[in-house]
Specification:
412 residues; alpha/beta; Aspartate Aminotransferase, domain 1; 14 strands; disordered N terminus
Amino acid sequence: MLDTKAGGATPAPDRPDSLAGLHPETRLVHAGILRSPYGETAETLYLTQGFVYDRAETAEARFKNEDPGYQYTRYGNPTLSMFEDRLAALEGAEACRATATGMAAVHGAIVSLVKAGDHVVAPRAMFGSCRWIIEEMLPRFGVSFTLVDGADVSSWRNAVRPETTLFFLETPCNPTLEVIDLAAVAEIAHAAGALLVVDNVFASPLYQRPLAHGADVVVYSATKHIDGQGRCMGGAILASRELIEERIQLFLRMTGPSMSPFNAWVLVKSLETLPLRIARQAETAGKLADALATLPGVTRVIFPGRPDHPQAEVIARQMSGPSTLIAFEVAGGKAGAYAFQNALKVVKISNNLGDAKSLITHPATTTHSRFKPEERAHLGISDGLLRLSVGLEHVDDLICDLSRAAGAPAAA
């Protein structure tokens, strides 16, 4: 179907509301498709920087936002629209904007919602780059912050100031898989007149719906589970149409953290298989977590699907499934962790996650290496802690690989 308003020839997508009532698996195949006049089955890749107008008046109308057509791929592109609409249909969001990376989404969501004099509350347990934005970048522009123990709801309430305008968190957090009570934190934020931004990467949009629990904005690194095959970078910001159009869209348009059409096309196709991949990875992760708990030298296992998780009650209320990530600690500190990683044959050492390949990393020397030792200790990131991202390999092969590594001697 073509939208010919104001002289444009812009394909009109199947909007998320046209698929209301359908299951997520169906929406991930059919939502947001922009058909060209040729009626193609697969989504079209629009590799173009700009767009032409039939008349000068049309160009003026586009730049006044009186015509819904496209202007420039930094502002929007049909392939990006397909990705945005499809992800919005899954998330249950009114609007979505794609970004070049997950950190571009985090940065864009935070910076577009605060100004000098504002105050941000965030948990201590965060991805290192997110902590850098909160601790290092925001104060340069007159935005103060308070870090809290995320699982302690009272610490969020106690951190509120009259100038508090934003709460930011990730749950489950990276790398210790601590889970934060979204509904409780959202209630505190809204009572203070603040907005809640949630990084939902570790749970994926299939197993946790932050907007349904009171979040105002959800961000993703599409590089992770959404692509899921180690091919391209991407990010996304999802929120109400009002928040996107009035506060976030202009920042993204003017500063340019835009996703490439090719990456958007890859991610659109990846969304079609997301439920199959996540279900398989989460199922395998549960079996691996149980197996790890029995291995010699493994002193602690943290997995959102296990009843011994510290926030098991919160998980039961707000997550419909576990993560694909496992955190576990081995004896012997850094030497023990290195020996474990180096003995693996199937699982690969990498700081990425959410891939078809199982990946393992040592947070203390990679993703959280910028944290001071005392801060890592406070967060439970010991020198023996490892983060395992479970892939699509056969579970028996992975159990064998981890069991062999558990018996590897540490270097002297």
